[in-house]
Amino acid sequence: MKILIVGSGNMGKTYARSFLTSRVITEKDLFILDKNRGQVTALTELSGGNIYDKPGAFISETDILILAVKPQDFAQLAGQIKPFVKPEQLILSIMAGIKIDAIMNTLGVKRVVRCMPNLPAQIGMGMTVFTSSPGIDKKELFTVQNLINTTGKSVYVEDENMIDVATAISGSGPAYVYYFMEAMIRAGVKMGFTLSEAELLVNQTFMGAVHLHNQNELTCNEWIKKVASKGGTTEAAVKVFDQFGLDGKIGAGLVAAYERATELGS
Questions:
Q1: Within-domain flag for 27
Q2: What are the pLDDT digits (tens) for 149-187?
Q3: Of 105, 124, 157, which residue constitutes the final position of a domain?
Q4: The domain spanning residue 248 has which CATH number?
Q5: Domain extent for 211
Q6: For the segment 21-46, what is each residue's pLDDT rounded down to a tens digit?
Q7: Which of 8, 92, 179, 209 has a CA 20 to 30 Å removed from the CA of 135?
Q8: What is the pTM of this model?
Q9: What is the dihedral of CA 101, 102, 103, 104, to 10 degrees?
Q10: What is the DSSP letter of 169?
């Protein structure tokens, strides 16, 4: 199996490293195409001599073509690579907002997988939601999922619209976590901790809470009740969150992210 990754930004490099580290392919079967000459030079460590800065016949030699470029660059890129793309090649797209039909029609292919990974994929703890065109069989989907899972976990959805929902939840989700962490750190400093102390308290609290949740079957609400004893400190904080309608505001934020994702794809 030969794989071509088009674009060597964060996710392009993440996939390249993950595929090689997991040994799902070898260096000789990994191809990378990036118009940035500086990137091409820097990536020789990943794929030996299979690094290119211009499209060419090598594109036709690959089985899976991964589109890891910015969605706004797709139209120009498609015009450059289409002469070399074979109709039977499998396309894996991580471009936000670009629909499967658009990729199929623009490149003249029949088999497309569209996925939405997130930033923690860089350390093998990513969450990816993916879907596919009707022309892909279960064996091919299994192959694609094995590739995706080298960066973390994945969920397959039948409805392509759910990719936009996933963008709002897991795609953008790490930023929400960092937003809440930053607010807690600032509050910790305001109440007397040094910045480094506040960062340690918040970072370890988040890591511990997530690991504890993952190692048990309790729901988030059940965990909240375990921590928030009646008349205690946690209950006081949660009451303030409820007074400000924090739960509803978080939900509204996710809806706004979802609506923006659908706008980008229209």
A1: yes
A2: 999 999 999 999 999 999 999 999 999 999 999 999 999
A3: 157
A4: 1.10.3730.10
A5: 173-264
A6: 999 998 889 999 988 766 656 666 66
A7: 8
A8: 0.88
A9: 50
A10: I
